[in-house]
Specification:
heterodimer, A: 292 residues, mainly alpha, MetI-like fold, 74% helix, globular, B: alpha/beta, D-Maltodextrin-Binding Protein, domain 2, ten-stranded mixed beta sheet
Chain lengths: 292, 614
C-alpha cells in the first residue's frame, strides 16, 4: 500500500516553508544583533542576557500567574457547568452545547470590547451601583478586569472538552461504585473525576495556552500601562522595532510553553489528535444533529 | 429525579449562560442607541447600522475576512485531508516527524507563530498583503484539519482501499469514492474549525498583513481606541448571521426528513454548488484590487481625516485610495521598513526629518499644490528641511494637560508638570502611552530640554517617571483616554491639544493648560515616498486634502488645528468658539522634537519599556 505516500510531499514542502523556516528565523534573530546596517548580523547572546533583568522577568512571572489564575477559575466554574450539562437529556445537551459554542464564533475583540463599556467608570455596573446607593468602583484597567476578560473568552474551551469526556464515560462504572458501597462524594472523586481527567487536561491547555500569550485582552481591559509577555513582544516588534530582542523573548516563551505542554502530555499521554477538538466536538454534535 | 437535584443542575448552567450572553445582549442593545455613548441609552436609532454600511474600510474588511476564511478553509481542508491519508500510509519516521512539526503551530503561542511568519515574509521580501494573510491562514488552519481527519483515517480498515483497487478502481477513484466518504465527518469538523479559526483570527493577521489589507479583527482593533457603536452594529449583524446559519443547519434536516424521509440529493447538491460559487466569487473579487484604475496608497494616523473627503477625491480623480492607518510614528516606520509600500504618508516632524535623512521620501511638486498659499508659514521651513521641499503641513498643535475643573483648582495648576505628582490626584491620572511624550513631560518638569542627549538628564527623567508611577499609580493610555475623559473618568490627562479640543467640546467640565516650563509643539505633514509610482496623483491628493474647504472639514471632524489659516479662522468662529485648545503655542520654552540618534533612541526606549513593565 504505497499508493498515497507521495501525496505527503506538498504538505512537507509547505510545512518546511511556512512552519520550520519561520521558526528557524526566530532562532536566528534571537542569537544575533544588528551590526551597522539592517542586513548584516553578528552573533550574540546579549538578547537573552538583556531579558533576565528583574523587571522583564517579573513580566513573565505575572503573565504566568494570571494565566494560571484564569485557568483555575475556568476549571472551577467550567467543571460544574459541564457536569450539569452532561446530566441533561441528550436533546437538551445538544442545544446547551450549541449555546456555549456560539459566543466563540463572534470576534474575540468585539466580545472583549463589550466588557469595556460594562466595566468603565460610567459603565453599566457602576451605574447600577450608583443607583443602589453605593459608590463607584474602579473596575476597568485592573488585574481583575483582565482575568475576567480572559475567563469570558476562554471558558467555553474548558467546558466543551470536559463535557465530552463526561458523556463518553461508561455509566455502569458509577453504578458499580454505588453497588460496592461508595457514597456520592467518593464516587465523584474516585470515578467520575478521574475518568474525566483527559477532558480536564485538554481544557487546561486550551485555556492556559492562549491566556499566557494574549495581548489584546490585557491591552483593552488592562489599559496601556499593562504589560504581559504578549504585549511585551508586540511592543518590541511594532513600536520599538528591536526584532532581535523580540525574537529572543518569543523563543523563551515558546520553549517554556512547549516544556509545559510536554509535561502535561507526559502525565496523561493524551494522543496528539485529541487536542483542539473542542470546537470540533461542538461541531460534531452539530453535524450529528444534521445526520439524525 | 428529585426537584432539588434539577435545580442544582439548572443554576450553574443558567448562570454560565447569563455570563456568556450578557455582554452580547448589551452590545446588541446599544447598537440601536441614538447617542454615541455606549453606556447611556438615549433613544432608538439605526444610524450606526447606516454608518457601518457607509464605512468602506469596514466593508472591505468584512470582505477580506470572509474571502480569506473561505479560501483558506478550502485549501487547508483539501491539503489536510490528502496529507492525513498519506500519513497513514507513510513510514514511521516520516509519520512521526511530520506529526510533531504539524503540532508546532497548535502548541506554539499564537504570537510566536505570528512573529515567525512576519519575519519570514519580510526576510524573503514578500510584500505583505492579501497573499501573505492567506498563506498564513492556510499554515495555521491545516494542522487543525489534519488532527481532525487523521484519527478517522487511522480507524479505517486498511484493506478497504486495497479491495477497491482490486475491483478495478484507480487510486484516485478509490480516494474520492471510497476513502473520503468514510472519513467525511472528520473532514467536515476539520473544515468548520478551520473556518472559525480563520474568520476570528486577529494576532496572526495583525502581524502578517499590510498594504491596506485588513480583516474585521484588525479594523475593530484600530477602531476600538475610540468608542464606536458601529462595532456593536457589526457584531450584532454577525451574531444574527450565525444564528440563522445554525437554525437552518439544525432544523432544515428535520423538516426535510419529515417531507422526504431523507435529505434529498438536490439539496446536498445545491449546498455544494452554493459553496463552490461563494469560493469562486471570493477568489475573483479578491483580485479586483489589481485590476482597478489608478491606485494611491495612503498611510495616515488613525481617526485623522474626514473620510468623506477621501471618498470624494476618489470620485473626482477616478482613482482608488487604499487608506491604511497607524497608531504611532514608530509603528508606521516599522511597517514601512517591514516591506509595506505606501505612496503618501502623514508622519510627525521628527519622523519626517528621519525619512528625509534616510532618503525614503522625494521632493514635492509645489506647482501641483496651489492650495499651499493658505498655509501658516510660521510652522514651515524648520531646521530639518530649511527650504521646505519635502513636506506639506496637515495638522499642528501642542501637548498639554486636560483637567477636570471640578477637582483641580487654579492653585494646583501652578505646579506646572509637577501637578502630575500631586498626591491629591493619586490614581486619578492618565499619562500618554508614548515613549517620547512621557519623557518630554519628565524632562520639562525637571527643567531640561526635551531634546537632551545627556544620559544623566535622561536617567533623571526616567527616575521621575518611575517615582511618579510608584507614588501616583497613573494609567498609561493611548487614544482610549479620549473617550474616558469625555465621560469624565479621571481628573488629569496628558493629551494632545487637538484631542483636548474634541474632548472639551463634549464635556464642559474640562479645562486645558500648558505648563510654563514649556511643552512640545508639533506638526504632522504629508510626504511622498520614493517608491510612489504616480507622483502626480500623490501631489494632487495632497493639494486636495489641504484646500480651504477640505481642511475645514478635516479640522472639524478631527478637532486638531489646521495650518490652513482660512479654514482655521472659520472653524474657530463656527465650531470651537472660545476653545483654548484650538490654538498653537510656540513660546521660548516650547520645542519641537529633533531627530534622535540611535543611541539616544535606544536609551529612551529601554527606559520606557522599564517604566511600563512594572
Amino acid at each position: 500500500m504505497k499508493h498515497y505516500r507521495k501525496l505527503i510531499i506538498p504538505y512537507v514542502i509547505f510545512l518546511f516553508l511556512l512552519t520550520v523556516l519561520p521558526m528557524l528565523l526566530i532562532v536566528l534573530y534571537a542569537i544575533t544583533q544588528e551590526a551597522g546596517s539592517v542586513k548584516t548580523f553578528e552573533f550574540t547572546i546579549s538578547n537573552f542576557i538583556q531579558f533576565f533583568d528583574p523587571v522583564f522577568v517579573k513580566v513573565l512571572i505575572k503573565s504566568f500567574g494570571l494565566g494560571l489564575l484564569t485557568t483555575l477559575i475556568c476549571l472551577l466554574i467550567g467543571y460544574p457547568v459541564a457536569y450539569a450539562i452532561a446530566k441533561c437529556k441528550e436533546s437538551t445537551q445538544t442545544i446547551l452545547i450549541l449555546l456555549i459554542t456560539i459566543p466563540t464564533w463572534i470576534n474575540l475583540l468585539m466580545r472583549t470590547y463589550a466588557w469595556v463599556s460594562i466595566l468603565s467608570k460610567n459603565g453599566l455596573i457602576n451605574a447600577a451601583l450608583l443607583s443602589m446607593g453605593f459608590s463607584r468602583l474602579d473596575l476597568l484597567y485592573t488585574d481583575g478586569a483582565v482575568v475576567l476578560g480572559m475567563i469570558y473568552n476562554f471558558i467555553p474551551f474548558m467546558i466543551l472538552p470536559i463535557h465530552t469526556s463526561l458523556t463518553n464515560m461508561d455509566q455502569s462504572l458509577i453504578e458499580a461504585s454505588y453497588d460496592l458501597g461508595a457514597n456520592p462524594i467518593q464516587t465523584f472523586f474516585k470515578i467520575t473525576f478521574k475518568l474525566s481527567l483527559s477532558g480536564v487536561l485538554t481544557g487546561i491547555t486550551m485555556v492556559f495556552l492562549p491566556a499566557i500569550s494574549e495581548f489584546v485582552i490585557p491591552k483593552m481591559l488592562g489599559g496601556g500601562q499593562y504589560s504581559l509577555i504578549g504585549n511585551f513582544i508586540e511592543n518590541q516588534f511594532i513600536t520599538v522595532g528591536n526584532w532581535h530582542f523580540g525574537s529572543a523573548v518569543s523563543m523563551i516563551l515558546a520553549i517554556i510553553v512547549i516544556i509545559f505542554m510536554a509535561l502535561i502530555y507526559h502525565y496523561e499521554k493524551i494522543t496528539n489528535n485529541e487536542i483542539d477538538d473542542e470546537k470540533g466536538e461542538g461541531v460534531m454534535r452539530f453535524v450529528k444533529v444534521k445526520k439524525n | 429525579m428529585s426537584k432539588s437535584r434539577r435545580i442544582n443542575r439548572i443554576i450553574p448552567i443558567a448562570l454560565c449562560l447569563i455570563f456568556l450572553y450578557m455582554p452580547i445582549i448589551v452590545m446588541a442593545f446599544f447598537s440601536f442607541n441614538k447617542a454615541k455613548s455606549l453606556t447611556h441609552y438615549t433613544g432608538f436609532s439605526t444610524k450606526w447600522y447606516g454608518a457601518m454600511f457607509a464605512n468602506s474600510q469596514l466593508l472591505n474588511a468584512i470582505f477580506v475576512s470572509v474571502s480569506v476564511a473561505l479560501i483558506a478553509t478550502l485549501v487547508s481542508t483539501v491539503l489536510g485531508t490528502i496529507t492525513a491519508v498519506a500519513l497513514s500510509k507513510s513510514k514511521r519516521l516520516i509519520k512521526f516527524t511530520v506529526q510533531q512539526i504539524n503540532n508546532l503551530p497548535i502548541m506554539n503561542p499564537e504570537i510566536v507563530t505570528a512573529i515567525a511568519l512576519m519575519i519570514f515574509f519580510s526576510f524573503i521580501s514578500f510584500n505583505k498583503g492579501y497573499m501573505t494573510m492567506l498563506l498564513a491562514h492556510i499554515a495555521f488552519c491545516t494542522p487543525y484539519v489534519i488532527t481532525n481527519v487523521y484519527p478517522k483515517v487511522k480507524a479505517l480498515d486498511p484493506n478497504l482501499a486495497e479491495a477497491a483497487m482490486d475491483l478495478g478502481a484507480t487510486p484516485g477513484e478509490t480516494l474520492l469514492r471510497v476513502l473520503i466518504p468514510e472519513i467525511r465527518p472528520g473532514i467536515i469538523a476539520g473544515a468548520l474549525i478551520a473556518f472559525t479559526m480563520s474568520f476570528d483570527d486577529f494576532i496572526i493577521s495583525y502581524f502578517v498583513s499590510g498594504n491596506g489589507v485588513e480583516n474585521i479583527s484588525i479594523v475593530v482593533y484600530n477602531m476600538s481606541k475610540r468608542m464606536n457603536p458601529s462595532i456593536y452594529a457589526l457584531s450584532t449583524v454577525i451574531l444574527v448571521c450565525i444564528m440563522i446559519v445554525l437554525l437552518i443547519g439544525t432544523f432544515m434536516p428535520y423538516i426535510l426528513y419529515k417531507k422526504y424521509g431523507k435529505i434529498p440529493r438536490f439539496v446536498t447538491r445545491l449546498g455544494y454548488i452554493g459553496l463552490a460559487l461563494l469560493v469562486i466569487i471570493a477568489g475573483f473579487t479578491s483580485f479586483r484590487a489589481n485590476t482597478a484604475k489608478q491606485v494611491l496608497k495612503v498611510f495616515n494616523a488613525g481617526e485623522y481625516a474626514d473620510m468623506e473627503v477621501v471618498a470624494s477625491f476618489e470620485r473626482e480623480y477616478n482613482c482608488r485610495v487604499i487608506y491604511e492607518t497607524f497608531d504611532s510614528n514608530e509603528s508606521m516606520y516599522t511597517k514601512l521598513m517591514g516591506g509595506n509600500d505606501y505612496d503618501v504618508i502623514v508622519p510627525s516632524d521628527y519622523m519626517i526629518a528621519r525619512l528625509i535623512k534616510e532618503d525614503l521620501v522625494v521632493k514635492l511638486d509645489w506647482d501641483l499644490i496651489p492650495n499651499a498659499k493658505s498655509l501658516d508659514t510660521s510652522i514651515m521651513y524648520q531646521d530639518f528641511d530649511p527650504k521646505n521641499d519635502y513636506w506639506c503641513p496637515y495638522f499642528c498643535g501642542n501637548v498639554g494637560i486636560v483637567y477636570d475643573k471640578r477637582n483641580v483648582t487654579k492653585k494646583d495648576l501652578k505646579d506646572g508638570w509637577n501637578i502630575l505628582k500631586n498626591p491629591k490626584f493619586k490614581g486619578d491620572i492618565y499619562m500618554y502611552d508614548s515613549e517620547r511624550d512621557s519623557m518630554m513631560v519628565a524632562l520639562k518638569a525637571l527643567g531640561y530640554s526635551m531634546n537632551t542627549t545627556k544620559p544623566k538628564e535622561i536617567k533623571a527623567a526616567y527616575d521621575w517617571l518611575v517615582d511618579q508611577r510608584n507614588t501616583m499609580k497613573p494609567t498609561y493610555a493611548g487614544d482610549d483616554s479620549i473617550d474616558a475623559m469625555k465621560s469624565g473618568n479621571k481628573s488629569l490627562c496628558v493629551m494632545y491639544s487637538g484631542d483636548a479640543c474634541a474632548v472639551m467640546d463634549e464635556n464642559d467640565n474640562l479645562g486645558f493648560f500648558m505648563p510654563d516650563e514649556g511643552t512640545n509643539y508639533w506638526v504632522d505633514g504629508f510626504v511622498v515616498t520614493k517608491t510612489c509610482e504616480n507622483q502626480t496623483l500623490a501631489n494632487e491628493f495632497i493639494n486636495y486634502m489641504i484646500s480651504d474647504e477640505n481642511a475645514y472639514l478635516h479640522t472639524v471632524e478631527v478637532g486638531y488645528l489646521t495650518p490652513n489659516l482660512n479654514a482655521a479662522a472659520k472653524a474657530r468662529k463656527n465650531d470651537f468658539p472660545g476653545n483654548i485648545a484650538y490654538e498653537i503655542r510656540v513660546d521660548k520654552n516650547d520645542e519641537s522634537f529633533d531627530y534622535q540618534d540611535n543611541e539616544t533612541k535606544a536609551l529612551f526606549s529601554s527606559y520606557w519599556t522599564k517604566v511600563k513593565a512594572k
